[in-house]
Every structure is written in structure tokens, then in C-alpha cells.
Write a structure and sequence with these properties.
Pfam families: PEP_mutase. This protein is an alpha/beta fold. It has a single domain (1-244), classed as Alpha-Beta Barrel (TIM Barrel). The chain has 14 helices and eight strands. It has an eight-stranded parallel barrel, surrounded by eight helices. Helix 9 links the parallel strand 6 and strand 7. Helix 2 packs parallel to helix 4 (67-81), helix 5 crosses helix 6 (137-150) and helix 11 (241-257) runs antiparallel to helix 12 (262-268). The protein starts with a helix and ends with a helix.
């Protein structure tokens, strides 16, 4: 059952969307990032799966964190945010439609104001990494149907994300976006458009409230909020800003503590998402993935 605070946060997010003013949601991943987001007056926050994987578990964003780990992190962050609404990343829903039902129920009980689901093949990858794959559109429509049925009230928003731009092209991504909107998603998220023209085209051709993901070093241009507002975007999430800057500060201080130079810290600095995830072992995990994929082929 939703608490009074949860009901208020969900109502507030609905009201913000109805105002048709761009909602800027910083990426939060732990208690202090949530507290600071609230105390600096932000109207919403985004639970970043990449940030939880890296900061919470020392893992890259390649599908290694479980639904339980994410929903419990969401619960803690909702508590820290108070009545500031939380938009929460739930990756692919962590399985078949019945798994999606359990995921949505867990996030719903944790008190999030919106849950984001995506159409990647599991295990997913960060939206700004290469080699992504997507499921058939009809398969994700089943995911959406399960999510919409499972939520306890209509004020828990369902955000539908498509990653089709990279493997299938922008036309396919826009087609999927409109289908997901017709299937009942409250907000649509076309991941990783390349260039301002693609961002503008999505704004023109997708008939739904839109979310855009602004990733430091990613493939999408970091357009100013005023321009995104003009293009009709409803929400701009900044999932990596806080974590990347905190990582920089930690690297610099660690090098000071062991007597090495700022140049040594600079050598570790990530220029893009892949560099960042290599700080938490992505190269090693992908080697394991390749190893067992090769073993599977040899058995076939």
C-alpha cells in the first residue's frame, strides 16, 4: 500500500509533467547523492542503474545487478529524498512478463514515482556502449502490459525506453517509440540519438511526453535545457554527472595520499562511458562473457 509520502511524490511528478516545463533529474545512486539533490532544491531525481552498479557494487552496467538489489536501493533513496519524486531505472524488468510483474511490485512498494523499462535483450548494456541488442517490439509490448497491470495506481508512471537506435536505426526507434506510447506507456525514452538533428526529429515525430538521457562523454549532444524545452522534451536525466565528478575527486585525493601526481590521477580519468566502466572491471567481465560464449559454441 502506498504511503502518504509516496502518493504525494507521485502526484507531484504528474503535476510537473502537466506544466510542460522541462524536469531536470540528476542521477542519484546512494544516500548522500539523494540527500544533496533534495537539499539543493531539485524537483525530481533519477535512480541510475549504472551509478548503483558502479558505486553500490563496484560493477559495470552490463546487467550484473539484480532486481532485488535495485529495488532495495530504490527504497533507501526514496527515504532520503522524502517527497522529491524518484524516477527509477529497472533495466529490462529482469525477465519474462511474470518477472516484470514482481519487479514493478517491488519498485512500487519501494515508493518510486516512475519506473523505467527498456527493450534490450538481457543482459542489457549501458545505453551508450556498443553491441546492444533489442527484443522484438511485440515482446516488449508484453513487458509493458505486465508493468501497467502490476502497478498499484495510475500515478506510478511507466517510462518505456527503446535502444533500437544503435542496432536498427532511428526510423525503427521512432516507430517503436510510438508503438510503446500507443501501448500505454506514460513517457517515452529513445536512447542514444546521435546529433542535434536526431534529438529534434524525435521531438517532432514521437507523440508522447519524452525523456532524454544526457550522458557525459556519450553519443547524445548535451543540449541546453532551454533548447530541450523548445523541442518539447518533458524530462532530462543526467545519470552520470554526480558520480563522474565524485570519481574525479576521489582519484585526485587518492593520488595525493599515496604521493603520486595529478598526472597519475588524470591517467585514470574516463573520457566516455566505456572508460568509466573499465574502472569497475568491465573489460574483465566481458572477457568472461566471451570465454563462455566460445565454450557454448564449441558444445553446439
Amino acid at each position: 500500500m502506498a504511503t502518504t509520502r509516496t502518493i504525494e511524490a507521485r502526484r507531484r511528478l504528474r503535476e510537473l509533467l502537466d506544466k510542460r516545463e522541462l524536469i531536470v533529474a540528476p542521477g542519484v545512486f546512494d544516500g548522500i547523492s539523494a540527500q544533496l539533490t533534495k537539499r539543493t532544491g531539485h524537483v525530481a531525481a533519477y535512480l541510475t542503474g549504472a551509478g548503483v552498479a558502479a558505486a553500490g557494487f563496484g560493477l559495470p552496467d552490463i546487467g550484473l545487478v539484480s532486481a532485488t538489489e535495485m529495488s532495495e536501493r530504490a527504497r533507501m533513496i526514496v527515504g532520503a529524498l522524502g517527497d522529491v519524486p524518484l524516477i527509477a531505472d529497472a533495466d529490462t524488468g529482469y525477465g519474462a512478463p511474470m518477472n516484470v510483474v514482481r519487479t514493478v511490485r517491488a519498485y512500487d512498494d519501494a515508493g518510486v514515482a516512475a519506473i523505467q523499462l527498456e527493450d534490450q535483450v538481457f543482459p542489457k548494456r549501458c545505453g551508450h556502449l556498443p553491441d546492444k541488442q533489442v527484443v522484438d517490439t511485440a515482446v516488449f509490448e508484453q513487458t509493458l502490459a505486465a508493468a501497467l497491470d502490476a502497478r498499484s495506481d495510475n500515478n506510478l508512471l511507466v517510462v518505456a525506453r527503446t535502444d533500437a537506435r544503435a542496432p536498427l536505426g532511428l526510423d525503427a526507434a521512432i516507430e517503436r517509440a510510438n508503438r510503446y506510447a500507443q501501448a500505454g506507456a506514460d513517457t517515452i525514452f529513445v536512447e542514444a540519438p546521435r546529433g542535434a538533428e536526431e534529438v529534434e526529429r524525435i521531438g517532432r515525430e514521437v507523440d508522447a511526453p519524452l525523456l532524454i538521457n544526457l550522458v557525459l562523454g556519450g553519443v547524445t549532444p548535451l543540449l541546453p535545457a532551454t533548447r530541450l524545452q523548445e523541442l518539447g522534451y518533458a524530462i532530462a536525466i543526467h545519470p552520470g554527472d554526480l558520480l563522474v565528478r565524485a570519481t574525479l575527486a576521489m582519484l585526485q585525493r587518492l593520488c595525493e595520499l599515496n604521493g603520486t601526481s595529478k598526472e597519475d590521477a588524470a591517467a585514470h580519468l574516463p573520457a566516455n562511458p566505456a572508460d568509466f566502466f573499465n574502472l569497475v572491471g568491465m573489460a574483465e567481465w566481458l572477457q568472461l562473457d566471451t570465454k563462455y560464449a566460445q565454450r557454448e559454441r564449441s558444445w553446439a
